[in-house]
Amino acid sequence: MLDLLIRGARVVDGTGAPATTADVGVRAGRIVATGRVDEEARRTVAADGLVLAPGVIDVHTHYDVQALWDPALTPSPLHGVTTVIGGNCGFSIAPLAPDAVEYVMQMMARVEGMPIDALEAGPAWDWRSFGEWLGLLDGRLAVNAGFHAGHSTIRRVVMGDAVHEAASPEQIEAMVALLHESLRAGALGFSSSLGDAHTDGDGNPVPSRSAQPAEFLALARAVRDHAGTSLEFIPGMGEISDERIALMTDMSLAADRPLNWNLLGSASPTPVYEQQLTSADHAAAHGAHVVALALPDVMRLRSSRMLSAMPGWGEVVTLPDDERRAAVADPAVRERLRAGLDAARERGVAGMMQWDLVELPDGRSVASVAAERGTDAVDALLDVVVPDALPLTTIFPSLVPPMGVTDESWEVRGEVWRDERVVLGGSDAGAHVDIMCHANYPTVVLGELVRRRGLFTLEEAVHQMTGVPAALFGLRDRGVIAEGAHADLVLFDPHTVASEPAEERHDLPGGALRLYAGAVGVEQVIVGGETIVERGVLTEARPGTLLRSGVDTDTVTVPGNH
């Protein structure tokens, strides 16, 4: 008897092949039958009119800390995610040493935007080895999760306070040994960063930024000895220098593994993606494998606090409701606030205030509200936004900033996202939780990019979010619907699937704030044959597998085709 039978679904199998109508049978966490299935089942789901796809694989998250207190890794599973990869950018929370705990905690708070009060109020950081930390998570998660060992963390454990110096040969040897130990315990690979914006709790460059090429290559070479591993890297922002392009190629060759870097077109004032993607061409020409991660959406950052940072605005926007409304009705106050905004522009600190890219909760831009009212943007803020303390979101249009969020710009993005040198991901889920929430990218892709804009076919979109990342990481029997594959599945209504707007929640340890987005049209999310989300509600099931290199992954040494 089957444990689960999904009958009559429109099956999009993750390979890019055309959808078919079929039944899917599951037993003991695996798909055991597809097509016409007549076997009886303990549970049957009628899926007429619904799409059944493999669960989404989000390869760039920072759920390392959140996994200690939130076994569902929310809100990712609400959007169809069944597998996540953490420990990115060189920032893992294992391996650890007693004298490194405070430094690593402060680093995670500073560079990844995790509220320090929440980190301190959560479970104690009392593990030491990578394996010991994984043991705390094993058997507790709702989704599948694997983690890289992070360069900055390893460097701090080995070098102590000397992390901003060049490492000696002996220190590099000790780092390599610690990485080997972590990989043997199940780390999925090695991550690092040369990102200029990555600073530690003291405002200094994170440890990995002080490493020399010999150190990067020695650590990458260690990865070669462990099956089912890969590399993740941050080369910087904007154009990638020839030196760093060569470094990524050399790291991939040293490891004999693929290297993915983050994030294509990220926060650049000009469209640099063509130059950035030459990193993949250079690697391929030398027998290496380098791919770029791209967020399949425009980047949206909660920017309400930018108003309080403007001269004179802070004392008004933080007033109690009645006093704030009275203040913005006073012509003298309005004039003072207008002057403060002008002063901020003159000092170059109002760069986020491109009003056609600053949105209200209903999706209208400040510029469009001003046009509707026949006023300017400042009056729109003072008449509509400030009185009710409405949250604002600033859009950073990735890849093609000069084109904003026009239909033309979306077409360009679609072309880039289909490029074989690009893998969809880069959600950063679990990080920067007070200003952004991109854990919802799967339902944005399905609702906005597939249904509304037609930038992908349904089959293309599912393939890009499932089969492609599974192949990149060598995830064994995942990312497809086929007999023998793990039963990680998402069942959704293609006519309604979408993301809800992000909202503020104070549900982190200690009551700290984060942004959280629910989903529409996602009927069921299934991990290992067990339903973890049903009609937008999390169940109590915790069937997730803690992915370990060599056990749940296969070695990947050559580029795969999209």
Q: Give the overall pLDDT as a whole number.
A: 93
Count, helices: 19
- Total strand count, please? 25
**What is the straight-line distance between the termini?**
36 Å
Detail the poorly predicted runs. Answer: none
Silhouette = globular
CATH architecture heading of the largest domain: Alpha-Beta Barrel
**Strand count, sense and closure of the main sheet?**
9 strands, mixed
| CATH first level of the largest domain | Alpha Beta
* CATH-defined topology of the largest domain: TIM Barrel
State the helical fraction: 25-40%
Q: What percentage of the residues does DSSP assign to strands (E)?
A: 15-25%
| Gyration radius, in Å | 24 Å
Summed up:
Helices cover 31% and strands 18% of the residues. The chain has 562 residues and is an alpha/beta fold. Strand 24 and strand 25 form a beta hairpin.
